[in-house]
Amino acid sequence: MPDSLCRLTVASCTDDAHRAVDLALPADVSVGELVPQIVDLVHRDGTQEPGLDWVLSKLGEPPMTESESLNDNDVRDGDLLILTTTEPAPAEWSPCDPCHAVAADRTTAPRMLPAIACVLLGGCGAAALAWPAAGVAMSSRIVVGACLAVAAGVGAVVIPRLRGDPLICVTLSMITVLYAGATGFLTVRTSTAVAGLLLASATIFAVAILLLRVTTSGRTCLTAIATLAVLVSATAAAAVSWRLQLSAGGAMVVGLSLATLGFTPRLAMAFTGITPDTAPNVRRCHQTLTGLVAGSSAAAALGAIAVVVAEVCDAGSALRGTSFIAIVALVLLLRVRTHVDATRRASLAGAGVLCLLAGFAAAAVAAPAHAHVASVLAVSMGAAALGGIVRPTVSPIALRTVEVIECVAIAAVIPMACWVGGIYGWARGMNLI
Length: 433
Description:
The protein is an alpha+beta fold. The chain has helices at about 30-40, 100-105, 110-130, 140-165, 165-185, 195-215, 220-240, 245-260, 265-270, 280-315, 320-335, 340-365, 370-385, 385-390, 395-420, 425-430, and strands at about 5-15, 20-25, 55-60, 80-85. It has a four-stranded mixed sheet, with helices on one face.
């Protein structure tokens, strides 16, 4: 069967030699089956390199399809075929590879978990260091606290520059602040805790500002800590000077915090020195604003909780504390809608919810007979909070109503603070009329 054979010339051009061989090949066999035999015939001396991919092609045309025969590739008698090599393709992952699928589906441990554990353990250590104990030398505690604060501060500056991980900087900065505050609290040798709180908050503020200058990360966290510390420090200074009660001090913290919360945008712009020509400072300004909002919200929540604790402990005056903390919670929750940043919204909402929890707990403790009312109110407010998930359409009239309620709540904070702080009783005792 002469048509079953195809007589042609196969030329092989390599770096070492140029060969041409006349062959008679079966025309109905696939090219892939013929190539190994053609390579053996052309390179009988075994000079071909192993591991190469050999292909046949016509002169000036792409390689032939190996699954097709010579007839299918339109090869005729007398044609000249070129035998060349191609580099093997690099290995690639296949989407259906089981190993690849399992490796891609594995869950990685959250990076925040070790940082949170480190901060919590550091906070426990700082609290244990500052815990009052009779008959224990304070000098050794002060030295230990100062050494730990300095070591953590040096680590917050040096380690992130070597590792390039901002999370390490934030974690060590918080450890530095905690032990600096504990050391400041121990330094005051008085029987009252307010003086120690004053020096501790002042130390925390100074250390936080210093870390803001020397570190490259954690601006939001350090700004929040500095804001909280300066508000507590101002209140503690007033408490030391005028011997304020816990309820009066808490009311003062709330007043200062809400006032700061209203001026946070201007304060952020002033602290960062942002102008219309300094666009690169926009990110720093947003971080500073977030820190100011978070610190002010936390201070307001702590002050309101201090008020309600003091009022509950004083029999017969729980109504003032629960009313005051309810007003503060309402103000904080209504301020959430004025911010678009998720962190700022979460800070305000978290502080407001914390105030509500403390208020419901105080109401249940002070008035056990009406605990069912507090329970119903708590569930109702929790159901109302689901509106943030549903995102219902709100009419302009409803929005205007919310704005009016916010203004009334803000205006009610000062009279309520004077009530729980004892200003009205003090003025009544002066017999001005």
